[in-house]
Amino acid sequence: MSRIKEIYYEAKSDKWFQGFAVFCRIALAASFLPAGFVKIMGERFAAGLPSNNPLGHYFDALYLTGYYYTFIGVVQIITAILLLIPRTSLLGALMYFPIIINICVLTYATRFDGTRLNTMMALASLFLLIWDYDRLKHILPFKQPKANPPVLKNPLGKRLRIIFFGSCFAVLAFIIIGTFYLYEIVPGNSEEACRNQCISSKNPAACEEFCDCIYSEGQPLDSCLANFNKAKNVRRHDVK
Questions:
Q1: pTM of the full predicted structure?
Q2: How far apart are CA 46 and CA 119, in angstroms?
Q3: For the chain, give me the number of helices (H) and strands (E)?
Q4: Residue among 23, 24, 13, 5 at smallest CA distance from 129
């Protein structure tokens, strides 16, 4: 455990890691500022997303919740401001993390194309919480021994940067490539995007029925997926 602490405090004193933490704070704040302003101004978030899209259904319902919709926007703006101020950045990260996890789960559940970006934002938020562990540990529900930062006996130096940032690129590549194979079919961000995937689909007719179910009939995602699987299985049976 002492070795982990050594590495942690070495990273905390490294300018590259400090710069990365600042980048994460600015990037996460920048993601919430426009989203919050849209809600405060009373406009529908992601206006270009069709209402019949599974996530579009959610945004339509959320937009009609009145002052709750405005409240979400205010919280997002406050969270972004807290992230930008060094003294309050930990509080901002603590507020940001549950919000982005909720958004991340929502986008995966609705098979939204933006799941990759939301996953990266969730990981950046987690990094900020780990980054401020030396401050966060005082509110954790277990005893923390009082100790000064450990003396670095075997600093990793440049190796630490290579290991960390190399791992970051590997994780990003895994997210980007892995999400392409996560689902057999997705509603896309528009009807055109949905139908475009049917060109390379192994079951183009079933895919077209799925897109009709989503965008022409406005049915829930689960119902359309059930119809897609049924149509796919019927056609496989017919081929046999």
A1: 0.87
A2: 18
A3: 11, 0
A4: 24
Helix axes 89-109, 115-131, angle to 10 degrees: 150
- d(CA 225, CA 209) in angstroms, rounded, equals 10
User: Can you tell me the distance from the alpha carbon of 136 to that of 166, in angstroms, rounded to the nearest whole number?
Assistant: 26
Kindly list the distances between the CA atom of residue 129 and the CA atoms of 69, 75, 91, 215, in Å, as whole numbers in the listed order: 27, 19, 10, 40
Q: Which of 165, 133, 139, 127 is nearest to 1 (CA)?
A: 133
Question: Which of 227, 116, 104 has its CA nearest to residue 181?
Answer: 116
By the 8 A CB rule, do 59 and 44 touch? Answer: yes
The mean-pLDDT minimum among 5-9, 55-59, 114-118, 204-208 falls in: 5-9
Ramachandran category for residue 44: left, alpha or beta (phi over 0 → left; psi -120 to 50 → alpha): beta
